[in-house]
């Protein structure tokens, strides 16, 4: 079968937000298909069987029939549709007819019922009707006379063939390949996102995509703004890995519906939702460096329409490790408590209404610095250098939607969220306190123009940010209010999909901003997909929060303002352009795929962080000249043997900007990166037991380092770092469907950066700097864990 043509359900906006099944009228029936050719064939078969008219929608997989019952019947029409090759809720097409369909029309039916997408006609007595719920893992359809079940199990990581944008769907299977204690560790087996430590004293990691820092990627949770503003440096640590139900990663310009801040792409995290059966999971984790954590997740159905999720997390870092004997802890000690409650109502089939409610709270405390530092003693009473970070965050949100009766293509949704985030921290003698209150609202209406080949989304949003920051003796306050409107149009043809959108936002400090974005997908053949994208994004820089990796130093902050209304600086504006080719073929007589993409980001304006003007300064100023990032990636996924999956990738980055001293490379960005991942699973036993073995090898090339040549010789850095490699591996055993044990290792090759802290012996001197980190600072680490499901 042409795998590039396998059916992928693309829910409407409301179905994505409320996770619900489309409503279906008396003369509406589920019919399987893929494309415009399928639509023409299905509608022609229906009219030839006596229907006055028929309209089939590829998105909902629903055909709407208009016929005279005295001349024909729905049974006869659906039988005729099956005779031309399309399975439906009453009849299954003959295999020989299905096999003769064009490659673009071959919907997925190759595995048995309940294993992957399939529709089967049941003549036996019906089973109890399942809960009607569209989750990321399964779709369920049912009728009172017969049960028809469609179940699609998500791959570990799947590149969506239907999306016009380059979007990867990362499932729980992929997340279980590594420790994945929080969101920052959820991309260790992913070749698209680069993960690195930010400095040598806080133990935090940051993501980079398309050669640019994490701040240029929109990080959302439940499609609501999440890790942004003051949450940027540590927010990834506040979403536990065991809470994640799935991740959608989009490279390049994302939809204008979700806002204006995305420049290099969007990473959306979905939390665990209730499935058909209640489930409670318990996870216990510990590693050799004294980190322990526990997760408890519980999902259950309260009644026919209500379900809930309770997510609990606690962790503590107890071990005090100084592996390089420089007198500083390799990672801070501390603890975190984290709780979230989700409540969902789903009655789209009858009333057309669905709603989702969530509330969460997290408290995180970390203490690091010199091993002699005692957090129980006032800093003024001790000479040791200490680091303290105290975070608290509260979120409450609601998403409510209504689907118009007998119009599954038309819906309206309204999302609202309030967040308060507070940080109280110190780095030696440097104090930083910040508080951010955010309110976000987004109203979206979705419908069609004439037919389902012409869809649109339109609406209005409002963003309110209130910032209050204290740095040393200075206070910085500002309030941002951003009402906006948007429109997005989707045109679907036989071989192409065009998504074009634009939004206008009226920012009280940055002025009116116009944000156009376009994504285009063309199916060159049934196995070759070409994608093009272009778009604009803008954001306001939070220079203190986003530069905290350099607070562990004695660099003084200097702002070269130019009259802007945010830290005396102008907002950041950039254009992103991309092209990709997705090719599927046979390798070792098994399915394989090759994806090559190129993206370029051009900054119209940017807030530069200059570390080269002086080793004793961090200087912020707006770009005058050019700043760009070129990103090329090629990735091969293949299966050389049964149960063995492999992924090879290579990335090249060219990231430069015009600084005050001239054009030069952005520091801490490797030009060349290699990636290899292998995953092997044994066959399941009758009890459901099996082994999983996973390994990830990465080669990180040279990185441009900041210029410290005005320092004494012993406190300088070379122009470029050395190349190095890392190896992570894990072996897990599923004893049955309820118990899983795993043991793994990180940085097993043991490479660490020599002297990651400059002048560690004199932390209050002029040359002390813990922010010049380009490689791991901790050696090989071993961890183990247990998962229980009830």
Automatic annotation (TrEMBL):
Domain TonB-dependent receptor-like beta-barrel, first and last residues per copy: 331-748
InterPro entries, per the entry: Beta-barrel_TonB, Beta-barrel_TonB_sf, HMA_dom_sf, TonB-dep_rcpt-like
Localization: Cell outer membrane
Domain of life: Bacteria
Pfam families recorded: TonB_dep_Rec_b-barrel
GO molecular function, one term: siderophore uptake transmembrane transporter activity
Region forming the signal peptide: none
Gene3D superfamilies, alphabetized: 3.30.70.100, TonB-dependent receptor, beta-barrel domain
Protein name per its UniProtKB record: TonB-dependent receptor
Organism, as annotated: Kaistella flava
Taxonomic classification: Bacteria, Pseudomonadati, Bacteroidota, Flavobacteriia, Flavobacteriales
């Amino acid at each position: 079968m042409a795998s590039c043509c396998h059916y992928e359900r693309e829910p409407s906006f409301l179905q994505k937000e409320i996770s619900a099944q489309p409503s279906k009228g008396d003369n509406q029936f589920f019919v399987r298909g893929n494309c415009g050719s399928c639509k023409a064939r299905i509608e022609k078969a229906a009219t030839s069987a006596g229907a006055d008219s028929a309209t089939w929608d590829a998105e909902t997989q629903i055909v709407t029939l208009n016929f005279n019952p005295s001349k024909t019947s729905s049974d006869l029409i659906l039988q005729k549709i099956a005779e031309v090759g399309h399975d439906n809720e009453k009849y299954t097409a003959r295999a020989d007819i299905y096999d003769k369909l064009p490659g673009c029309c071959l919907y997925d039916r190759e595995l048995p019922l309940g294993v992957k997408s399939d529709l089967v006609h049941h003549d036996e007595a019906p089973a109890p009707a399942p809960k009607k719920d569209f989750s990321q893992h399964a779709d369920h359809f049912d009728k009172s006379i017969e049960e028809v079940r469609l179940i699609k199990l998500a791959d570990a990581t799947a590149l969506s063939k239907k999306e016009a944008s380059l979007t990867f769907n990362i499932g729980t299977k992929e997340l279980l390949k590594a420790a994945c204690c929080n969101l920052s560790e959820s991309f260790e087996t992913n070749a698209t996102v680069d993960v690195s430590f930010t400095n040598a004293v806080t133990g935090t990691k940051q993501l980079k995509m398309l050669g640019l820092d994490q701040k240029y990627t929109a990080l959302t949770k439940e499609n609501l703004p999440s890790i942004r503003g003051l949450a940027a440096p540590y927010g990834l640590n506040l979403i536990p890995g065991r809470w994640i139900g799935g991740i959608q990663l989009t490279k390049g310009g994302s939809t204008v519906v979700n806002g204006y801040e995305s420049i290099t792409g969007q990473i959306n995290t979905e939390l665990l939702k209730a499935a058909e059966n209640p489930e409670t999971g318990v996870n216990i984790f510990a590693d050799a460096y004294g980190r322990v954590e526990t997760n408890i997740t519980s999902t259950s159905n309260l009644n026919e329409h209500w379900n809930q999720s309770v997510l609990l997390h606690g962790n503590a870092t107890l071990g005090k490790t100084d592996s390089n004997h420089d007198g500083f802890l390799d990672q801070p000690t501390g603890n975190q408590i984290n709780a979230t409650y989700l409540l969902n109502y789903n009655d789209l089939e009858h009333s057309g209404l669905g709603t989702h409610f969530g509330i969460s709270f997290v408290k995180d405390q970390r203490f690091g610095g010199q091993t002699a530092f005692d957090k129980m003693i006032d800093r003024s009473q001790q000479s040791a250098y200490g680091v303290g970070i105290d975070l608290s965050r509260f979120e409450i949100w609601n998403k409510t939607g209504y689907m118009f009766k007998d119009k599954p293509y038309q819906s309206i949704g309204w999302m609202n969220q309030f967040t308060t985030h507070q940080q109280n921290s110190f780095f030696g003698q440097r104090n930083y306190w910040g508080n951010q209150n955010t309110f976000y609202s987004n109203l979206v209406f979705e419908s069609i123009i004439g037919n389902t080949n012409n869809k649109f989304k339109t609406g209005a949003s409002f963003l309110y940010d209130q910032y209050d920051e204290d740095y040393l003796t200075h206070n910085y306050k500002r309030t941002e209010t951003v009402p906006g409107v948007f429109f997005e149009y989707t045109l679907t043809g036989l071989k192409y999909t065009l998504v074009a959108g634009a939004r206008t936002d009226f920012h009280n400090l940055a002025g009116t901003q116009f944000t156009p974005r376009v994504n285009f997908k063309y199916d060159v053949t049934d196995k070759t997909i070409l994608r093009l994208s272009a778009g604009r994004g803008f954001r306001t820089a939070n220079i203190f929060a986003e530069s905290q990796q350099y607070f562990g130093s004695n660099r003084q902050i200097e702002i070269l303002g130019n009259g802007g209304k945010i830290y005396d600086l102008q907002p950041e504006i950039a254009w992103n352009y991309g092209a990709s080719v997705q090719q599927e073929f046979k390798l070792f007589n098994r399915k394989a795929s090759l994806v090559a993409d190129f993206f370029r980001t051009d900054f119209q304006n940017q807030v530069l962080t200059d570390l080269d003007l002086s080793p004793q300064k961090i200087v912020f100023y707006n770009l005058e000249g050019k700043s760009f990032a070129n990103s090329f990636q090629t990735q091969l996924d293949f299966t050389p043997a049964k149960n063995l999956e492999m992924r090879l990738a290579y990335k090249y980055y060219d990231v430069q900007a015009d600084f005050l001293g001239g054009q030069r490379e952005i520091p801490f960005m490797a030009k060349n990166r290699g990636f290899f991942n292998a995953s092997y699973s044994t066959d399941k036993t009758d009890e459901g037991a099996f082994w999983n073995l996973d390994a990830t090898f990465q080669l990180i090339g040279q990185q441009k380092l900041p210029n410290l040549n005005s320092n004494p010789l012993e406190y300088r850095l070379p122009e470029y770092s050395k190349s190095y490699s890392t190896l992570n591996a894990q072996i897990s055993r599923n004893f049955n469907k309820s118990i899983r044990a795993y043991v793994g290792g990180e940085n097993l090759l043991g490479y660490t950066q020599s002297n990651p802290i400059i002048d560690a012996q004199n932390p209050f001197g002029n040359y002390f700097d813990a922010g010049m980190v380009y490689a791991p600072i901790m050696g090989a680490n071993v961890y183990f864990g247990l998962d229980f499901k009830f």
